[in-house]
Amino acid sequence: MTENQKKENVKKWIKDICDSLNSNEYKDIYPDSDNYNYQEIKHPKELIDIIIINSSKFNFLNKKGLINKGFCPITGEVLNKFPMQWGMYGRNVFMSNEGVESCQKYDRDTYLELSGHTEEGYEATILAKEIIKDINKYKTELGKELTLNYLLIFIKLLAFSGIIGAFFIHTSGWVIIGKIFLILFLVIILLVKFGKKNGQTLKQRIEMLELGIRVNERKLNNLPEIINKEKQEKAALEANKQKMNGLLDDINDY
Q1: 91-95 and 84-88 as β-strands: parallel, antiparallel, unpaired?
Q2: Nearest-5° angle of CA 146, CA 149, CA 154?
Q3: Separation CA 225–CA 231 (nearest Å)
Q4: In what helix (H) or strand (E) does residue 246 lie, and over which residues does it extend?
Q5: pLDDT tens digits, residue range 118-151?
Q6: What is the DSSP string of 172-221?
Q7: How many CB atoms within 10 Å of residue 12?
Q8: Bridging pattern class, strands 196-197 and 200-201
Q9: How far apart are CA 105 and CA 121, in angstroms?
Q10: Which CA distances in Å does 129 have to 125, 143, 219?
Q11: Which phi and psi angles does 32 have, rounded to 5°?
C-alpha cells in the first residue's frame, strides 16, 4: 500500500463519519446533535474522542461499520490480526502501534498547548494520575480485607462465647464436647476459606496492601526525582541505540 493510499484511507474514514453524523438519519434520532465539517478535523484523534465519549454516536456508527474498517484511522495502514486499540467503556477503535503513539503525542501536545505546562510538567501530571490510581486501588482492596478481618474476629468471638456457653448449659459432657468440636470445626472452615488467598494469610495481605500504599505515597512525594531518573535512563538508552546503529553501519561498510 502506497503512502497516498494510506492518506486516502484516513481522509475517507474522517469524511464518512462526519457525513454520517450530519445525515438526516442521525439527525432524526438526535436532532440537537452538532454538525461536523471533515475539512476542519486536523487530526483523526479529534474525531475519535468525539465518538468514543458519546455512546449514541459510537453505536450508530459502529452498526454501519464505519469505525473499525480493517485499517488504522490514524496512519491508514492495514491492520494485522492483533491490532492495538484506543477507547473507553468498551467503545474501542482499533489502530496500529504508530496510531496509538500518534494519539498519545496528540494528547500530550494538546495538553501542553492548553495548559502552558512544560514537557516535564505533563509527564509529572500523567505519572501522578497513575500513582493516585494505584493508591486508590490499594485502598479499595485494603478496605475489603479489613472488613473481612473484622468479620472473622466477630466470628471468633461468637465461637468463644458459644464454647463458654456450652459449659453453663446443663447437658451431658459428651454433648458439650460435641458442641465445642462443631463450633471449632465451623470456625476452622471459615478461616481456611476466607483467611488464605493466593498462598497469603489475611494478615500478610493487609500488610502488603499497606506497604503498597506507603510506597506509592512516597513516589508521589518524589515525582521530580523519579522523572529526572527516567529522563536519564531514556537518554542512556537512546545513546546506546545510536552507538549500536553506528557499529552496525561500520560492520556493513566493512
Answers
A1: antiparallel
A2: 130
A3: 10
A4: helix 223-253
A5: 666 667 777 777 888 888 888 888 888 888 777 7
A6: -HHHHHHHHHHHHHHHHHHHHHHHEETTEEHHHHHHHHHHHHHHHHHHHH
A7: 15
A8: antiparallel
A9: 15
A10: 6, 21, 12
A11: -90, 10
Q: Which three cell numbers stand for residue 158?
A: 461468637
Instruction: For residue 41, give Cα distances in angstroms to 13, 32, 62, 67, 194.
Output: 11, 21, 20, 16, 55
Cell numbers for 47: 474525531
Q: DSSP code of 40?
A: G
Single out the residue of 145, 26, 155, 1 nearest to residue 76, CA to CA: 1
Place of cell 546503529: 245
Note the pLDDT tens digit of each residue in 234-245: 777 777 777 776
Task: Calculate Rg over the CA atoms of the chain.
Answer: 30
Q: How far is CA 165 from CA 71, 154, 184, in A?
A: 73, 16, 14
**Cα four-point dihedral sign 56, 59, 65, 68:** positive
Between CA 10 and CA 1 the distance in angstroms is 13
C-alpha cell, 168: 453453663
Question: DSSP letters of 58-104?
Answer: HHHHHHTT-S--SB-TTT-PBP-SS-EEEEETTEEEEE-HHHHHHHH
For the chain, domain boundaries = 3-115, 120-221
pTM across the whole model: 0.51
